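User: My instructor asked us to take a sequence, write out its structure as tokens, and then describe one feature of it. I'm not sure where to start. Here is the sequence I was given:
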Amino acid sequence: MKTFTDRRERFLSSSLFAFSLLLFLNVACNAAQTGQQTEAPQALKQTVRDKNISINFCRMLEMRHVSRKKFDESISTRGFELYLKAIDPSKIYFMQSDVDEFDAAFARTMAQSAKKGDLTPAYVIYNRFLQRVDERCATARALLEKNEFDFTKDETFQRDKKLLKYPATDAEAADRMRKRVKFELLTFEAEERDKEKEAAEKGEEVVKEQTLDGRADDPVSKLMRRYSTLQKRLRQTSNDDVLEIYLTAIANAYDPHTTYMSPKSYENFTIMMGLNLEGIGATLQWDDGYTIVKRIVKGSPAEKQGELKVEDKIVGVGQGESGPMEDVVDMKLTDVVDKIRGKGGTTVRLDVVSQDGKRKQISIVREKVDLEDSAAQAAIYEVYQRADGSMTVVDPKDEKAEEQRPADAVSSLKIGVIDLPSFYLDMKAKLLSSGRSASSDVRAILEDFNRQNVDACVVDIRYNGGGSLPEAVELTGLFIETGAVVQTKPSEFGDRPRALTDPDPSIVWKKPLVIMTSRLSASASEIFSGAIKDYGRGIVVGDETTHGKGSVQSMMELASAIFGSLLRETSNLGAMKVTIQGYYLPAGESPQLQGVRSDVQLPQFTSVLEDIAESDLDYPLTFEAVPPASYPRFGYATPEIVKAVAEKSKERVAASKEFQEEIEKIQLYKDSVLRKETPLNRDKYFAELDKLNANKEETDKLQDVVNGEGGVVRDYYLDEVLYLTKDYYDTIQRQLAN
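Assistant: Let's start with the prediction itself. The structure tokens for your sequence are:
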């Protein structure tokens, strides 16, 4: 089962599109021809452009970071450790002798060297990595050619990277590679088995994967191709790629959210924050050497055209009606995306292979694509309560809604639910007072709730990793009168905190409010939920605490900082994202590391996932509390109200079959995590996998979020939140009556 270490930053707006080699190794490891031999990669070298970027990035990092810390030996040693970790997280490629050599030469001075524009450590270490990749891939191919694996032998594959050490000898390196290959073969077997089971349950035929030449794609062939393509893939690594990993490693020595974004990463970041782009409207993923269609955006040119399907492989891209078709098998995903994106009104042609092996060409006219699935969305439900206290949720839009409404109901409540995936803001359009934002979209939804006489509101930010700080302030202002929403403190050395307030005395939503959170709710989500909690304006429901990110980052285009705004457009040098402040809730506490605590806790899979909280990251900052700001208190979340709601919810959860199954899944996952190792005995591997497959629904749900599939989804968890919202509303009404 995969951990969510690499997914975590997808939820945190501060690192939304950080480009790391870890992504190369996890996703981009496949080639087109089985057993293909590869040439030695050409060594990457520093350029004058790299030098200028490094000097200016490091200069601004020292000047702008909240700590004001200068580059010294501690920053260098941290950066050295993080660079190796980014390149070889599983300690499969480097030898201990490599690490010792690099440590002696670079570990205590690499940050100071980068400040002078000397990137020798970056390229020496990376080029050695490429050499070791060639060696390990050759070992893997030799093992696969013999295919003499013993899956009855009792041995394990260590999956806890913290417990691993670099191999000391060639024999140790080869044995670690052997175990990794066995593990990956079992993983492929498991995928095939799951597809067969799923097809059998649906009464469908299994569609066997095929290579481009129509041959069946068995696990050994797929893995052979994977290691061949890993070498191809890494040969496409550019200086920008290496520079991003290297400068980010140095920046992460300050804190986990300070990074360097290459020009391509920064472009992707601004697209997602603005929720629009020009292209065909398909989410793509790199897998087994192919660019795979993972999702088609609603209302996009691809959906309107109708021929492109999820799981199609894009193997060629042509420009215009007659431009040459370019082979994109094994091409970097970012390069493929560049070729498919383009100016609205122009045509792109795709050479596509479907799941059944059929090949076709598709012409699509590009348009502006609004990423609606990544914007705030809403639904309205009715909750009916009977005399015995039991409740029923009805979706008024359901065709059978009338049948579902209980005849013996003694009361009912209309509840609006808002799914808010991020605190987005079209930054460029904002300067022109146009474009969309999270607060403006939520305002429109709340106004519609008012028109429809909705009684209570639920805001779901369980998978919201943050975004724009001003948007968090503006959105909070929709629920309160004037008052401090958040306090910021630009330096750790005694600067007085500054309160950011809601200046608008009007309240768009005056009725009861419930906020759904999880450990993936970070940054701006914690500002919003923390302010609502401090104000006593509503209650927070979810995991025990939120993510625990109490810092503020600023984006800065390097070209603007170096050359000024006039040359920014012609000299794209990427951007730096730097932590400039700690932030504090109105009561003075910082969410940093501790998060925002829920008033009502509900069992949820996110509560136990590994490596997703701020405290799990390397070198997180710490902030002391500041004096409370001036803000009014509401009476919507007194201890008496919270206790009454929590007790009733606890009783329902204890009697709920679905929640008890969720608790069992959580325990199974915790037990698996504690074991730290995966069995390589086939029978034991599948026995453990069958237990962990109980969590497949949860991991699929999170993957949908990663892929951008938003919207309100009704399940047993949301039903319980709707029930407790009804309890919450009734409790407030009784308090007002008394």
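For the description part of your assignment, you could build on this observation: The radius of gyration is 27 Å. Try explaining in your own words what that tells you about the chain.
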